[in-house]
């Protein structure tokens, strides 16, 4: 969370106690001053005091409760809200199974460094250890210990006197670099007790970021740039706050740009220096750039260096040409071979670099303007290429195919051309990742393209698209498969209940597509991937939600995105796709088979 997202008047406010408050009211007051608009959760006996406080305080401008259909969906919604707004995402659940149901959503936020406050209940303290219903204390199914493995902070509040201190610690832990979820578990009797008078805490202290930039390391990198002729950029998911300065750096140095699957959200897909995605479902043009021996420095920015994002930690990227720039020291543990590391605020680092480069240019210093890879794509430009000449696609003709069932490549290409730029896009785990990573390119650089590849949770997009819509007040699109939807599709009724424009798109192939193609490509036994033939449009209509079935290219082109985005309520678009089209995921299959991945794009 950034201080700048909060109103200045709230930064100066202190948490003051009201004589009628209980501890649950105190928690809600903190959230109100942090300008958290929504809390996502599922009610239950032990968490009722918190729901009571939410109901009371909503009248005073406090956050509104959004009831999910499953606790994991609540955590996904909170994550989507936090990604969109930059504020703290908040989710809650009752004790026992309510808490354990949150776990997958919380783990997903942990893997992707999204700040959440996770509030769970406990049975009253006198019932601890007595085999009470849904007991999850330290003498039963110990949820505090369970959450310690997927949060930045996890604690039990066992006394009223601990509320202030531990709540402040949790909020600060969620917002400290690296960001992530923080968990507090509170017995229901503690929630109902009156708070004790404690220190009056200023909200600004809870959200302030303390960032130190290594200026000596920036100066050393400037010297390295002075001694280099050609440089290239590899952008990860964390480069968003600095993207304008990063693009200026590329302009000054003529550096070609390669992105990871989660980093492409910040790049204009038609930019003349963008070579596409390296890693999972990537592009030959990105692969060729990484292999180019003429590049002196390969600068990786804001990337945790994950398996999927780097082609299985391939040596094309991880070698002694690498310079790793990041705000999280932990990420450097995966690049010990790098020539140089620079830690700090990414925007400030690139502002300094750009100023140093401009000074050097005054003295006649320049960097390579056109490299062999760029010239190659100038020479080989195809008039039929659906995207810029600088990105090579597997089987580009399929992007224009009129075949029925629809080719997934055609679906994704049409989406890239026609989805309005203000719509937020969420991609669920599965073949959706591969098709959109490889074929979806557009001019938007606003970061409205969301993918959660840290933990790879099926159903993530189904909830996250709702949380994002609450935060942005703009239409959201969830792209998912029929397998994921059968797991978590009931959350569509949350969008219906609150009349928000979330558009659900199911790539319907009546199977677990990534499982099927992974088995085929890997030579495994083909088992367990079949799903029944289901009309998801009719399923939506049974819930009083508009359902649209897409079978032909004409149906696909006729989707009126603007109308759907202006509706008060969700839409289901059920797209029947060709189940036999092989997604560009061969390298992932190889990695599963032998423990190491080839960076060969698209398999």
Output the keywords:
about 600 residues, 18 strands, 3 domains, Rossmann fold, alpha/beta, 6-stranded parallel β-sheet
Q: What is this structure, in a nutshell?
A:
This protein is α/β, with parallel strands linked by helices and 603 residues long.
Annotate the secondary structure layout.
Layout: H1 8-11, H2 23-33, E1 38-41, H3 48-58, E2 64-67, H4 71-85, E3 89-93, H5 97-111, E4 116-122, H6 143-147, E5 153-156, H7 163-175, E6 181-187, H8 188-192, H9 203-207, H10 215-226, E7 231-235, H11 243-253, E8 257-259, E9 274-277, H12 284-291, E10 297-301, E11 322-326, E12 340-343, H13 346-362, H14 372-379, H15 408-418, E13 424-427, H16 431-439, E14 449-451, H17 460-472, E15 476-481, H18 482-488, H19 492-498, E16 502-508, H20 513-522, H21 536-541, E17 546-550, H22 553-557, H23 561-566, E18 571-576, H24 586-594
Parallel strand pairs: 1-2, 1-3, 3-4, 4-6, 5-6, 7-8, 7-10, 8-9, 10-11, 11-12, 13-14, 13-15, 15-16, 16-18, 17-18
Helix pairs in contact: 2-3, 4-5, 4-17, 10-13, 11-13, 20-24
């Amino acid at each position: 969370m950034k201080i700048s997202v909060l109103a200045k008047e709230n930064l100066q406010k202190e948490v003051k106690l009201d004589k009628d408050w209980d501890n649950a009211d105190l928690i809600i007051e903190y959230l109100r001053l942090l300008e958290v608009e929504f809390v996502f959760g599922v009610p239950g006996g032990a968490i009722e005091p918190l729901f009571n406080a939410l109901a009371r305080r909503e009248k005073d401008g406090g956050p509104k409760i959004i009831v999910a259909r499953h606790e994991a969906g609540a955590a996904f919604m909170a994550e989507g809200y936090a990604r969109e707004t930059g504020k703290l995402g908040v989710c809650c659940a009752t004790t026992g199974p309510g808490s354990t149901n949150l776990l997958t959503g919380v783990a997903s936020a942990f893997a992707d460094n999204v700040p959440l406050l996770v509030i769970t209940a406990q049975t009253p303290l006198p019932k601890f250890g007595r085999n009470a219903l849904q007991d999850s204390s330290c003498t039963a199914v110990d949820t505090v210990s369970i959450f310690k493995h997927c949060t930045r902070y996890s604690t039990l509040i066992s006394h009223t006197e601990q509320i202030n201190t531990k709540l402040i610690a949790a909020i600060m832990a969620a917002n400290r670099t690296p960001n992530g979820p923080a968990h507090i578990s509170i017995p229901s009797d503690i929630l109902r007790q009156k708070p004790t008078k404690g220190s009056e805490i200023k909200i600004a202290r809870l959200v302030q970021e303390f960032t130190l930039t290594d200026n000596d390391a920036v100066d050393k990198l400037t010297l390295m740039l002075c001694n280099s002729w050609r440089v290239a950029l590899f952008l990860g998911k964390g480069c968003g706050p600095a993207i304008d300065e990063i693009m200026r750096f590329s302009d000054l140095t003529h550096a070609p740009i390669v992105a990871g699957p989660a980093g492409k959200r910040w790049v204009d897909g038609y930019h003349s220096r963008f070579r596409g995605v390296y890693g999972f479902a990537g592009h030959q043009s990105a692969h060729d750039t990484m292999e180019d021996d003429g590049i002196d420095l390969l600068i990786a920015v804001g990337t945790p260096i994950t398996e999927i994002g780097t082609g299985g930690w391939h040596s094309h990227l991880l070698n002694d040409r690498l310079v790793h720039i990041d705000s999280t020291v932990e990420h450097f543990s995966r690049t010990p071979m790098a020539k140089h590391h620079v830690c700090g605020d990414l925007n400030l680092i690139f502002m300094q670099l750009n100023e140093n480069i401009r000074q050097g240019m005054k003295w006649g210093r320049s960097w390579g303007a056109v490299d062999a890879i760029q010239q190659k794509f100038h020479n080989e430009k195809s008039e039929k290429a659906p995207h810029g000449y600088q990105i090579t696609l597997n089987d580009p003709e399929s992007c224009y195919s009129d075949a029925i069932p629809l080719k997934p490549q055609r679906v994704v290409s049409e989406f890239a051309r026609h989805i309005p730029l203000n719509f937020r896009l969420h991609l669920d785990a599965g073949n959706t990742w591969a098709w959109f990573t490889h074929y979806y390119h557009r001019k938007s650089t606003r970061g409205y393209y969301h993918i959660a590849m840290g933990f790879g949770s099926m159903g993530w997009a189904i909830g996250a698209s709702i949380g994002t819509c609450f935060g942005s007040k703009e239409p959201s699109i969830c792209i998912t498969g029929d397998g994921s939807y059968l797991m978590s599709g009931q959350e569509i009724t949350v969008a219906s209940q609150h009349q928000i424009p979330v558009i659900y798109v199911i790539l319907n192939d009546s199977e677990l597509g990534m499982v099927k193609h992974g088995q085929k490509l890997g030579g495994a036994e083909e088992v367990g991937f079949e799903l029944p033939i289901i009309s998801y449009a009719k399923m939506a209509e049974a819930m009083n939600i508009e359902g649209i079935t897409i079978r032909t290219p004409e149906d696909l082109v006729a989707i009126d995105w603007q109308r759907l985005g202006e509706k008060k309520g969700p839409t289901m678009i059920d797209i029947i796709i060709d189940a036999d089209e092989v997604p560009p995921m061969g390298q992932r299959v190889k990695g599963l088979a032998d423990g190491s991945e080839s960076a060969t794009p698209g398999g």
